[in-house]
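BUG: 3D viewer hangs when loading the predicted structure for this chain

Environment: internal workstation, default settings.
Expected: structure renders.
Actual: progress bar stalls at 90%.

Input used:
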Amino acid sequence: MLQKHEIGALILRVTLGVLFFIHGLVKFQGGIENIVGWFESISLPGFMAYGVALLEMIGGIALIIGFATRLVSVLFALLMIGATLKVKLSIGLLGNGQMAGYELDLAFLAIAVYLIINGSKAFSVSQLLFNQDSTETKKAG
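Structure tokens produced before the viewer hung:
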């Protein structure tokens, strides 16, 4: 039977995964070259737009299925810290009327940090692959 904290972690993991996946997908659907140009306009190398979009999509899928949750969460946390410091901090928490602030980035960061600390084993591919049966571990020990 799943414990409450595992159910909560599952909800956070899947939600964060879906939201990041959608953000990455939109970058490609809207024309990744536009994102490349925007990255260059804020003094970031344009190729990083591809890396960010791919991380968001692949990492999002990984979180949804529960694969490498802690690693992906570290990468997402670093991404949110970078986005906040480089782009959003000067705009403010709630934005400036033309661009959103860093409130969503902060929420994503908080969820990622929770998953880094606690992980999420419920319905995860990693649990199936690496911890198939906890009774085998007990017998071996």
